[in-house]
Design goal:
The structure holds 2 protein chains of 2 kinds. Chain A is mainly β. Helices cover 0% and strands 50% of the residues of chain A. Chain A is built from no helices and 11 strands. In chain A, strands 2, 4, 5, 6, 9, 10 and 11 form a 7-stranded mixed sheet that branches. In chain A, strands 1-3-8-7 form a 4-stranded antiparallel sheet, with no helix packed on it. Chain B is built from no helices and 11 strands. Chain B has strands at 4-7, 10-14, 19-25, 32-38, 44-51, 56-59, 62-67, 72-77, 86-93, 101-103, 107-112. The radius of gyration of chain B is 13 Å and the shape is globular.
Chain lengths: 114, 113
């Protein structure tokens, strides 16, 4: 069964460094999302992406964040200058076009900022 | 602004019990509602999705109901097993079909052998 994959599973970085989190959505899915979950807190929406542009973004998704679909298969989240409070689990999700509209989630990348 | 609340925050039951997890949302203009399972430090596994026009969905020992007008959903787990121990998350999407999911904080379930 097709699934969303994410790499790396765990990333440790120093404050101020740039990180890129990678996701491979399910083939033929058209809508892509990033969410994050700070330890012990709710899963929060960051950004949605469709037709090579951002559809919606939350107030968390400031100028330090960017998303890209560079090659038609990968979907990346870049954090330009990481902060301690960016430490979280980051989940990618994808969704097909159609009436069922279920979002399928990847296993997540745990980002630790030191 | 949509808010999703799950009660209780934690639940501990002996194996074999039937149990109900509750989810409430403040804005009834939703497109659908999903229930997820999350094991500690792991990703989100989708359990059931209920469209706004549906009243319930069933998968094995799981049954989810939706009362959109009152802003409530329940997840019923029959004959609980220790392997059911996990955090269960409720998330709503809406009003558009391509919109974001808004999550509750989850109910952490422990099923004791």
């Amino acid at each position: 069964e097709p699934e969303v994959t994410q790499t790396p599973s765990h990333q440790v970085t120093q404050m101020g460094q740039e990180v890129i989190l990678r996701c491979v959505p399910i083939s033929n899915h058209l809508y892509f999302y990033w969410y994050r979950q700070i330890l012990g807190q709710k899963v929060e929406f960051l950004v949605s992406f469709y037709n090579n542009e951002i559809s919606e973004k939350s107030e968390i998704f400031d100028d330090q964040f960017s998303v890209e679909r560079p090659d038609g298969s990968n979907f990346t989240l870049k954090i330009r200058s990481t902060k301690l409070e960016d430490s979280a689990m980051y989940f990618c999700a994808s969704m097909p076009w159609g009436s069922y509209n279920e979002q399928f989630f990847g296993p997540g990348t745990r980002l630790t900022v030191l | 602004k949509q808010e999703v609340t799950q009660i209780p925050a934690a639940l501990s039951v002996p194996e074999g019990e039937n149990l109900v997890l509750n989810c409430s949302f403040t804005d009834s203009a939703i497109y659908n509602l999903q229930w997820f399972r999350q094991d500690p430090g792991k990703g989100l596994t989708s359990l059931l999705l209920i469209q706004s026009s549906q009243r319930e969905q069933t998968s094995g020992r799981l049954n989810a109901s939706l009362d959109k007008s009152s802003g409530r959903s329940t997840l019923y787990i029959a004959a609980s097993q220790p392997g059911d121990s996990a955090t269960y998350l409720c998330a709503v999407k809406g009003p558009s079909n391509t919109g974001k999911l808004i999550f509750g904080q989850g109910t952490t379930l422990q099923v004791k052998p």
